[in-house]
Amino acid sequence: HAEVNNLPDLECRNLVVYINPFSGQGKAMQIYKKHVKKMFAEAEIKHTVVKTEYAGHARHLARDLNLASCDGIVIVSGDGLIHEVVNGLMDRNDWKIAIQTPIGIVPGGSGNALAAAIVYASTGQHASLDLVTDSMFEIIKGRSRDLSLVYIQSQSSFYFSFLNVGWGFVADVDIESEKFRGLGNARFTLGCAVRIASYRKYHGMVSYLPLEKSGIINNGSKTQTTIGTSFKTKTLAETNWNNSSSAGIRSEESGYFSSKNTKIFHISSSLHESLPNEWKSIEEEFVWVMPVYLSHVGQDMFMMPNAKLDEDVIYLYCLKSGVGRAQLLNILLNIADGTHLNISSENTLVVPCRAFRLEPFTNKTGLLTVDGEAVSYEPIQATVTPIKSRIMCS
Ligand code: ADP
Ligand code: MG
Predict the structure, then answer these.
(1) Residue 320 has pLDDT above 90, yes or no
(2) What atom of ligand 1 comes closest to residue 84's alpha carbon?
(3) Residue 376 C-alpha to ligand 1 middle, in angstroms?
(4) Smallest Cα–Cα separation from 78: which of 369, 383, 388?
(5) Which helix (H) or strand (E) holds 265?
(6) What is the mean pLDDT of residues 152-180?
(7) Ligand 1: which of 18, 19, 20 to mutate, judged by most atoms within 8 Å of the beta carbon?
(8) Angle between helices 169-176 and 186-196 (to 10 degrees)
(9) How far is the CA of 270 from the CAs of 65, 218, 219, 249, 258, in angstroms?
(10) Helical H runs in 53-185?
(11) Going by CA atoms, what residue is nearest to atom 6 of ligand 1?
């Protein structure tokens, strides 16, 4: 362990470790005892353990954490607990300082997208078979990087998000496969198999503010300047919901919004306004819509190979209902290595953008997820922000 011991400042660090005993297959505490505790002892990193007791606990812990007494937060769970911690830090009056607290991730959940994205960003490789050990090295090395945060508002709530929004197929799988939680990561594979036999179509409007240089991404590298021919775009979407104001969000002046604690940053347009001309809108029957801002959306899902941790880009991925079962299956199978983006189809759209709005049209129930957690099924709008959190990653 010479490599570990030679690194500077390790013994100065004092971390708090949040463990979610409910996450994944319920093995987070075992992962802590077998890996985290041992490696911290070898690296002489002091730490305090807190076991989360209920959903939302980690948000409260992060909100009330004494920052002066701690150099970083380590999370042993999945993406859901990271979402809680980020939002807990953003809830604080001192959020500008608090959000810079380095966050380390040990994959203990069934959805471990950020852990996989960190290892990929650091090494250029997919995690080895042992994502836990790979992740522990990222924490122990003591370096941190910026992680971009996207601001999401709905009529009833608002969130800071680091991973994705899901609507349609994979959101359904994500939430419906909760009952297969005991399978760990494999729950998604089984969930997909179950869902593909009876996949639903979602009628709605997807709007987005393209990057200047935006276009379809093929192959993660080649950029074209046109949008799939069968996607009819409108330049202006009519808003079709009422103007009730969102919790904690109020309009300050044109183009600026403030959520509570005076977090002010530019947002192109609010959920309640009709969209400016630069936006494009698509009304369609969709099978799957997923705006994503990390390379991975799950441990084995290399969804957007081009996405960087610190860039201000949302990659909007849409599949429209013309996609057949066989093609959908083919796409899902190829996500593991990112080659799904090579499957060109008039039913596929991948577009880098700065902001998006999703409007489900049906009154039927459906599922929307933010960072893998279900949120209420209603129109939502999101924008990139200049706000960055810090994650332990070399
Ligand atoms: P997974 O990847 O397995 O879904 P997450 O980190 O997303 O793991 O956590 C799943 C959910 O567990 C989150 O919604 C979180 O709020 C919740 N949670 C945290 N602590 C507890 C607890 N003690 N009991 C039940 N749920 C909890
Ligand atoms: Mg989760």
Answers:
(1) yes
(2) 16
(3) 18
(4) 369
(5) strand 263-266
(6) 89
(7) 20
(8) 120
(9) 32, 31, 33, 10, 11
(10) 57-64, 79-90, 95-98, 113-123, 131-140, 169-176
(11) 78
Residue 340 in tokens: 């799904």
Measured in degrees and rounded to the nearest 5, phi and psi for residue 279 equal: -75, 150
Atom of ligand 1 nearest to the CA of 111: 2
More confident residue, 324 or 393: 393
> In sequence order, what are the beta bridge partners of 353?
210, 314
Q: What backbone phi and psi angles, to 5 degrees, belong to 23?
A: -70, 155
Tell me the average pLDDT across 306-312.
96
Residues carrying an active site annotation: 79
pLDDT bracket for residue 187 (50, 70, 90): confident
* pLDDT of 217: 43
For the chain, list the domains and their CATH numbers.
2-142 (3.40.50.10330), 153-387 (2.60.200.40)
Residue 324: predicted pLDDT: 86
Residue 276 near residue 269 (C-beta atoms within 8 A)? yes
- Where do runs of H (alpha helix) occur along the chain? 2-5, 28-31, 37-43, 57-64, 79-90, 95-98, 113-123, 131-140, 169-176, 186-196, 325-334
Share above pLDDT 90 across residues of the chain, in percent, rounded to a whole number: 61
Pocket (CB within 6 angstroms of ligand 1):
20-24, 52-57, 77-81, 84, 109-111, 372-373
Structure token pair of residue 58: 């980690």
Query: CB of 105 within 8 A of CB of 4?
Result: no
ipTM: 0.99
Quick check: 224 pLDDT over 70? no
